[in-house]
Amino acid sequence: MGRAVFRGGVHPPEHKDATAGLPVEWAPLPERLVVPLSQHLGAPCKATVAAGDRVERGQVVGDIEAMVSSPVHSPVSGTVAEIGTTLTAAGSVVGCVVIDRDEEQDLDSYVAVPDGDDRRARVRAAGIVGMGGATFPSVVKLTPPKGMEITTVILNGCECEPFLTCDHRLMLEQPERVVAGAGYIRDMVGAKRVVIAVESNKPDAAAALKAVATEGIEVTVLPTRYPQGAEKQLIYALVKKEVPHGKLPAAVGVIVHNVATAAAIADALELGKPLTERVVTVTGSVARPGNYRVLLGTLVSELIEAAGGLTGDVERVISGGPMTGMALGSLDVPVTKGMSGIVALPKGMAAAAVSDDQPCMRCGRCPESCPMGLEPYAIANYAHRAMWDAAAKRDALDCIECGICSYVCPTNRPLAQLIKVAKAAAMAKGVKA
Amino acid sequence: MSEPLTARVVGPAPHITSKESCGGIMLWVVGALAPAAIWAAISMGAPAVLTLAVCIGATLGTEAAWNAIARRSQTIFDGSALVTGLLLAMSMPPRTPWWISLVAGFIAIALGKMIFGGLGWNIFNPALVGRAFVSLSWAGVIAAAENYGWFRVLSLPAVGEYDAISGATRLALAAADRAASGAYGFDLAAQYQPLLFHNLEGSLGEVSAGLLILGGLVLIVRGIIDWRIPVGYIGTMGLLSWAFGSDPIFNVLAGGVMLGAFFMATDYVTSPMSRNGRLVFGIGCGLFNAVGRFFGPMPESTTFAILFMNGLAPLLDRFTRPRTFGWVKSDE
Predict the structure, then answer these.
(1) Most CB atoms closer than 10 Å: which of A115, A393, B25, B71?
(2) Facing residues of A255 across strands?
(3) CB hemisphere CA count around A289 (13 angstroms)
(4) Do the chains contact at A372 and B1, CB–CB below 8 Å?
(5) Where exactly are the structural domains of chain A?
(6) CA of B122 to nearest chain A CA: how many angstroms apart?
(7) Closest by Cβ to A349, choosing from B16, B271, B322
(8) In the Cβ-directed half-sphere of B130, how many Cα atoms lie within 13 Å?
(9) B18 contacts chain A (CB < 8 A)
């Protein structure tokens, strides 16, 4: 179990103890929900309701016809207050539907997605996207391009980011939903093998999954090492194949879904339940850390309040995990489908605001730890000098943005940050690696 | 809506960093060198203490002054100049006149490091630059300087008869014997013990190869230095010594090999960053050290072997680039 199964990687302090043992509980329902019309990667939805309209829980409030898109639903029964715009966790401004909820809410009932034999259509209608954070519409992944055979489905239950425990609790409390989802995904893509991957720091979750695993569904425990849950690293660990540069996992016959996504797919197919809530780990410097079931559209500020508020000298509030998440400039942003956690980092734990005039002491930690085998110091040096072609030649575009290079740097050079700039600039210029 | 809650710092991920810092790493190196340095000071007495004090004072003073004059932010607290001074002192004979130590410390920092732009930018190991400069400039002065015994304040029991030898080191004697007759006038295997634990010839770093190995192992286990450099270095040195007809163990314990392999060649800035590059780098250091010792003009060739390989480090990095994950030939 201590055997590393991918190149590089680190093991940052896990900080999961505060919430790993806490059962998922409902967060208080907000009076007003701000439901963004773009909670996925792809074309933003157009509102299908207007101010003043009555909406039911589960009713579609936004959709668009596009290859890569996903509808959004009202998480409550209530009245549309306005169609407006909102700031998101990512810092962009998107359209949103603002809904004032009815006093009485029956969370067990909802408008079910239309019945039918086409399972993919139902997954799309339920608005399911990658809930690990990537928010890629699941139906697209479930529709492999012609001629590509999917042999293996991997469910990602690694949750390798520090602090986060929402997937852990889901696997522990509702393993049958995850396993059911795994079966549906396998059947939809015609795969032979299904592997649910769990890191070794969650033995209880692995045991719970094994106890309910049906025929042909494997549960594999992987070493606890960041970024075990990164798609390419996870695939390599399980099937020993490298996803070729610039290709999708389907190129090696694999698709990867997060465990929460699988559970949502099971709900959609068995119950017709659209995606209107998710589990969010609220932890760090908050009074009552926990794993909260949250209606999409709840503001982060309300969620933090539900967790007892921020405590101490909080320097950064992160949406997602501290290695890849987004630092929030404003807490009045809505919870969306891909938001796995809210982590309040106190002073001292949060990375100091960095400048890039720190020298590189050439210690070699960044190339040693890079899971993609890159030389972050070199790419960052080129980025610093705006030499985008040179950065791309050193495979900047292969960077998975795991953040390890910045994490390990003894002089705190903003390596990952510079490489992200290089990637964006190289892509904008159309530079080919 | 709730009371206004405002996050204070925004910025791109990652939002946490490891606790490793430049100063912390340097302190580990100082700590790993400390037993050997303290033992040298106790064994060799006041001249060794003077050499340590002058070398460290000169490196710190030069860096502080350079920063002040160049109006750069002060960097003497990053620990790097302290390590340079300590390494420099360890590479010097205790009887070195104080003014030579001073010049060595100045050259090490000024010409070895700051002129390139400070930490991280220099090509050659600063301590070795300082040592090379003075050993070429005042070789005669250093050799002719008073024996350490003249200053010694604390006298320890002699270890074997070799405590009585002054001036020429075992290494020099062995080289002279080899040159004269092709055979050794004394038993090389009998030197293992004094070389490991208590040897009063040569530089401060030659007092105890054993304590240097101990410190080096601590740094390897702690993940501060890569084993590939010392293993490549010492392995090659031993193997070639054996191939050249000498005693491999004597040759890796004598002279500056241990100090060089564990503490000088592993300097981050002047060694390769890739793992394979480091292995080749270590092997190269061992190769040139052995060739220098057996075929060069002087038996002590560690300094120049490492300096030479320092110059090749960028090239080694270039030729040992790791393969990017995913750049594979497709199956079909």
Answers:
(1) B25
(2) A153
(3) 22
(4) no
(5) 29-111+274-346, 127-271, 365-429
(6) 10
(7) B16
(8) 32
(9) yes
Whether residue A303 contacts residue A65, with contact meaning beta carbons closer than 8 Å, is answered with no
Cβ <8 Å between B7 and A317: yes
Please identify, in words, the CATH class of the domain defined by A127-271: alpha beta
Q: Which residue of A has its CA nearest to B329?
A: A244
Specify the 3-state DSSP secondary structure of A358: coil
The span from the CA of A323 to the CA of A46, in Å, is: 33
Output the pLDDT for position B145.
60
Q: Does B91 touch chain A (CB under 8 A)?
A: no
Q: pLDDT by residue (tens digit) across B79-130?
A: 999 999 999 999 998 888 999 999 999 999 999 999 999 999 999 999 999 9
Q: What is the DSSP letter of A10?
A: B
The verdict on a CB contact (< 8 Å) between B321 and A322 is no
The per-residue pLDDT for range A244-279, each reduced to its tens digit, is 998 999 999 999 999 999 999 999 999 999 999 999
For B190-248, the pLDDT digits (tens) are: 889 989 998 888 899 999 999 999 999 999 999 999 999 999 999 999 999 999 999 99
Sort A288 into a burial class: Cβ within 10 Å, 0-12 / 13-18 / 19+: middle
- Closest chain B CA to residue A235: B326
Of A316, A377, A409, the CB nearest to B273: A377
* Interchain proximity A407–B17, CB inside 8 Å: yes
Q: What is the pLDDT of residue B6?
A: 52
Alpha-carbon separation of residue A177 from A196, A213, A259, A264, A287 (angstroms) = 13, 10, 9, 8, 31
Size of interface A-B (CB pairs under 8 A): 175
- What are the Cα distances from residue B238, in Å, to A267, B230, B232, B243, B249? 68, 12, 10, 9, 6
Neighboring chain B residues of A328 at a CB cutoff of 8 Å: 7, 10
Which CATH number does the domain A29-111+274-346 belong to among 3.40.50.720, 3.40.50.970, 3.30.930.10, 3.10.20.600?
3.10.20.600
Residue with tokens 């200053």: B151
Burial class of A196 by CB neighbour count within 10 A (0 to 12, 13 to 18, 19+): buried
- B276 CB-contact burial (10 Å; exposed 0-12 / middle 13-18 / buried 19+): middle
**Nearest-by-CA chain B residue for A10:** B18
C-alpha distances in Å from residue A147, one per residue of A253, A255, A425: 11, 15, 34
> At B244, phi and psi to the nearest 5?
-90, 10
End-to-end CA distance of chain B: 58
Query: Given an 8 Å threshold on Cβ–Cβ distance, is A12 in contact with B16?
Result: yes
